[in-house]
Amino acid sequence: MIRPVTKQTGIASQPDGRKLYQQVAASVAEAIQRGDFSPGQRIPSERELADEYKVSRPTIREAMIALEVIGIVRSRHGSGIFVVDNPPLDTPMIGLDIGAFELTEARRLFEGEAAALAAVSITDEEIAALEVLIGDMERENEENVSGEHADREFHLAIARATRNSAVVDVVESLWDARTRSPLCQHMLERARSVGVVPRIDEHQTILAALRERNSKAARKAMRDHLARVIDGLLKATESDAFERARAEVEARRTDLARRVAI
User: Fold this and answer.
1) What whole-number distance in Å separates Cα of residue 207 and Cα of residue 159?
2) What are phi and psi of 79, to 5 degrees?
3) pTM score, two decimals?
4) Bridge partners of 82?
5) What is the C-alpha to C-alpha distance for residues 48 and 242, in angstroms, rounded to an integer?
6) What burial class does residue 226 get, using C-beta atoms within 10 Å of its C-beta: 0-12 exposed, 13-18 middle, 19+ buried?
7) Which of 45, 89, 96, 51 shows the shortest CA–CA distance to 71?
8) What confidence category does residue 5 fall into, taking pLDDT thresholds of 50, 70 and 90?
């Protein structure tokens, strides 16, 4: 097993300016460099690493995705995480400063309040513009357009409707962070690859609350929406999900073979 910083309390108790997932990623990289894991070898499961480091499973997931982004490990659907044949162990984790989980958590906090504030000042013209953006969002989903441009503009339009430039700057900076961080981009692309796209019905619920000028409902709709985004990311990056899917396919194949043999 990988040796954490302390066996009693795990990595979370160590004084370190780096984020937890960065500490975990660095520790796993060091273990590979020591030879604890050979090229092609499977590293411990997410659950085992979470228990060993005493951190959450999303933290472990971000650490593994960070190592995958810089080419130290690779994920095999349904099998787990494996050390690559020639891991670049001297590669720094530059730019991997924010993951999709913590980014979306921050968005949930700020954009929930932005929606509540927008509800008291949004105009009919802005409501109409949001309706058009939902249509654009639906088209982008159907055409599998990457980048989620309409989704971004929908949320920024709500921020602008607050009539508060500071709110606009914060919301825009959070969206910009999505493109600046390779880690965040990798996680979002993985989610899209398994069908996680902007939910039209959830955006319509946000719009309905804004149309009613109901701050409480707008806050709840936005927070619920972004909570589901986090849940979608968790499911999309869950290695066990691939294993379960493969097991289900095999079970169906076996059942079909039995039926054909009758």
Assistant:
1) 13
2) -120, -30
3) 0.69
4) 42, 74
5) 18
6) buried
7) 89
8) very low
The label of the residue with tokens 């589901």 reads: 228
Q: How confident is the model at residue 61 (pLDDT cuts 50, 70, 90)?
A: confident
Check: CB of residue 218 under 8 Å from CB of residue 115: yes
| Residue located via tokens 């960070």 | 66
Tell how far CA 213 is from the center of its chain. 30
What is the CA 81 to chain-centroid distance, rounded?
18
Determine the Cα–Cα distance for residues 191 and 63; give it in Å rounded to an integer: 16
Q: How far apart are the first and last CA of the chain?
A: 48
Phi, psi (deg, nearest 5) at residue 43: -90, 165
Are 10 and 56 contacting, i.e. CB atoms less than 8 angstroms apart? no
d(CA 217, CA 240): 35
Half-sphere exposure of 145 (CA within 13 A, CB side): 15
pLDDT for position 241: 47
Instruction: Give whole-number Cα distances, 97 to 28, 54, 61, 92, 171, in Å.
Output: 17, 21, 15, 12, 18
Angle at CA of residue 192, ends 21 and 142, nearest 5°: 160
Contact 206, 216 (CB under 8 A): no
